[in-house]
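Morning F.,

Quick status update on the modeling queue. The single chain you submitted on Monday has been processed. Sequence for confirmation:
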Amino acid sequence: MPTQSPNTDIQAIENLLNRFEISIAAGIASNLSDLFCEQATALFTGSSNLIRGRAAIVSTWQRHMDKWMDIKIDRQDTLVRIHGDVAWATFYWNGEGTANQSRYRIENERWSAVILWEEGDWRFTQMHTSLPYKNWEAHKL
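Structure tokens below.
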């Protein structure tokens, strides 16, 4: 069971979010595996299909990270709620990176995640992202 201390569990979830961001910015998809439940699902910006399972999510991130370099992420307005062994978080990502020799800046990418207490740790079990716009090229710097 979770620690039963809301502050301790919220800090543990903040640590999960930080580890996720550090792995993405460093381009190390293999570090993501321990952060997800085995049966996790994800729906990412630009993806038309639900991604099912930890291995498929990590593989999707690997393909994404193979295209990007010099990634910077700034998470804002994080809200975490916990009920028993289930938690959820919402936040915005602002960031930038380089793909195909072009620099991009993204603002207010919307994120939501459902997080489950599993095997003695908080892990992502569902993740969803969306952007408030459709024209990717408009974000070139």
